[in-house]
Amino acid sequence: MRVFFLIGCVLIILGVIALAVPSFTYFTTDRVADAGFFAIDISRPHTVVTNPIVGGIALAAGIVLAVVGLRSNSA
Question: 35 partner at 20 to 30 Å CA-CA among 1, 11, 45, 66?
């Protein structure tokens, strides 16, 4: 089926990204004090770490689904 091939391609892309970029950080801004004209904001970092095993499993599952999708499409 074409759906297996598309899901496989998405998993391959996500697996490669997870293996290439093991962690990423984003910042949120929180207001800690607000008094009249003065406001104090603080930026807090949040780091998201992906396990390389999860990236490898997503890559392997994507390859399997892509191959199954291509074989069932040709038959």
Answer: 45
